[in-house]
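Sample pair:
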Amino acid sequence: MRLDDYGVARVGAFLSSDEAREIADVRLPGVGEVVYRGLPLACFSVNGRPQHIVPSPITGEIVEVNNALIDTKPGTWHNPCREGWIARIRPENVEEDLAACRTRHVIVAIDNERAGKRQAIELMDLGCSADVAVSPGTTFEAIKRNESSLVLIDAASFGNDGPKMVENINEKFAKAKVVVVADPDSRWEAEYRAHKIFYYAVKPLTNTELIDVLNSAFGAAIEPAPEIAPAGKLPNRVSKVSITNRHSQEVNLLVSGEALLNNKGVGLQLRNLIFSENYPITFTLGARRFDAIDLIREANVCDRILVLEARDTGKVPGAVTVIQGCEALKGMSGSEYGIKTLMIQPNGEESGELVFDARTSRAVAEFIINEMASK
């Protein structure tokens, strides 16, 4: 993500070289859509594998989309902050979003400041933040400011002091990862390899190799989607979730149809989150559709209502659309009853079940619980 002079964020996705070569079936958001931090921004498939969902790092309105990504050469995705950007987003609260983002920080340790700045610009085009350090001392100071940095050390710049520099980094900064870039015939190779290093690269360090190093260093591990066995003969669908939030409000989540399952996907993640927050809770099992009479009856016995619907809106799977009121009230103002609808794009299966990869299911569940917990 990179902010321009007008406060608009240019957002992209960081992919490995293999993913960028095999990308297909790209689905992008539309101009005017509102996206939410952590929820899906775009998706694509890679070599026939399940959809890869790209989360948005910020909340805001889409003001421009890079439609060239749909039919351009795969290599375009290599530069997420230049030609590989996905969308430009006008953020609602950029300070809050930036504080929540995990930064990919790289320290370029090299004695040639001009060469270091060129490397830093390349790294920023790849979505990283970067510092240049021209000595062991300035390198240590830069790591102190961000201990989870990737330290890119030019072996020729530090000569005999280089291996000792790596030893000191390992002793003082356990979270830092060290990459050594050396000449093919470097006489310090054995000494460097004797210490714990993340990667040893032989010059020239190509852009593709650098991308794969960054992906390995900063990429999140793929989590298996959690699932538990159904509870005997009890219904597996959830029709209603009721909590009392921290503001002493009773909030009811009414689930339309068969969208929410008790044992996997968004339903399981939502249940686990509510339990972890120790909210007083009631789960009502069984699929159901709520009409206007049901909604008004529910509104009379609680403080707020959220209606959850799985509906094909043509958006990225897992994308959420927030609507004040509810369609079932047929033109009546749902706001007077404290009703809000959360419309979620399902995966495409006919069942409309809200089951995604683990990260997306958790993000959608977190969005729902945040809505229930708000005042």
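The chain is about 30% helix and 25% strand.
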